[in-house]
C-alpha cells in the first residue's frame, strides 16, 4: 500500500537499486526516436501509446512481441541488430544525467548504502551511458538484460542484484519510472520509489510505496545515519 503522503519520513536501507533509463539518465527522447526509426524502416505504424508500453522492458521482448509485423522471414536477432545499428546514428537526441542523481548517489554511498543498477538494456549500453554520465564508479554491480532469463516485470533482476550485494530484498529500496519496473521491485519484496515522470502519474504511484519527482529529495538514509541522529551528532547531508 502506498504512503505517498508520508514521503518525507526517512527510509533506512542497506541497498539502493536503480533502473537506468528514465530513472538515472534521461534517455526517453532518444529511445522513442530510435524505436520510431526502426518501425519506419519497415513501414510499420508506431503510435505514442505503443511506445509507452515499451518502457522498462528488454528490447528483445518488445521485438518478439511485434515480430510478426516485420514480415514472415524476420528474426528477432536480425531486428535487434538493426536497432543496435540505428543507435549509432549521430542525430539522435542526446542522453543526459537526471538532475540531482549524482548528488544523491554520492550521499548514499558515503553513508553506507550499497548501490546497483538493474536495467532492461544490454550490458554494453548500460556501461557506456553510466561512464559517459560520470557515475559508473558509484555502483557495485550492474544487472543487465544478458544476466536474466526473464525481464521486468519479473523480479529476477532485482533479486539477483540483492544476492550480489548480500542484502535481503526487504533491506533494499528500488527506484523506477515504469509500470514494469515498479511491479518487478514490488514482486522482489523491496520498497519502491516512483521517480521523475512516474511520480506525477497516479497509476504508477499506486504501484509504489513512495513518490518523488527529484531523486536528490528522496528520503533514504543509510544504516549508519539513524544512530548518528540518536547520538546527537547530526545527520549527514
- The total number of structural domains is 2
SSE string, helices as H and strands as E: EEEHHHHEHEHEHEHEHEEH
With strands numbered from the N-terminus, the spatial order across the biggest sheet is: 6-5-2-7-8-9
CATH first level of the largest domain: which class?
A: Alpha Beta
Instruction: List low-confidence stretches.
Output: 1-6, 227-237
Radius of gyration: 18 Å
Largest sheet: 6 strands, parallel
Number-wise, the strands total 10
Determine the CATH superfamily of the largest domain.
HAD superfamily/HAD-like
Using the alpha-carbon principal axes, give the shape. globular
Overall pLDDT, averaged?
A: 87
By DSSP (H or I, 4+ residues per run), the number of helices equals 10
Under CATH, the topology of the largest domain can be stated as: Rossmann fold
- The termini sit apart by 29 Å
State the helical fraction.
Answer: 25-40%
Structural class: alpha/beta
Measured by DSSP, the beta-strand proportion falls in 5-15%
Annotated CATH architecture of the largest domain:
3-Layer(aba) Sandwich
Region (Disordered): 218-237
Protein name: HAD family phosphatase
Pfam family, one: HAD_2
Task: Walk me through what this model shows.
This protein is an alpha/beta fold. It folds into two domains: 4-27 and 96-230, Rossmann fold (3-Layer(aba) Sandwich), CATH 3.40.50; 28-86, no CATH class. Helices cover 37% and strands 14% of the residues. The protein is built from ten helices and ten strands. The protein has helices at 28-41, 48-52, 59-65, 76-86, 101-110, 123-132, 156-165, 179-188, 202-205, 225-230; strands at 11-12, 15-18, 25-26, 96-97, 114-118, 141-143, 172-176, 191-195, 210-212, 220-221. The strands form three sheets. A six-stranded parallel β-sheet has the order 6-5-2-7-8-9, with helices on both faces. Helix 1 (28-41) packs across helix 4 (76-86) and helix 3 packs across helix 4 (76-86). It is globular. It starts with 10 loop residues before the first strand and ends in a 7-residue tail after the last helix. The model is unreliable at 1-6 and 227-237 (pLDDT under 50).
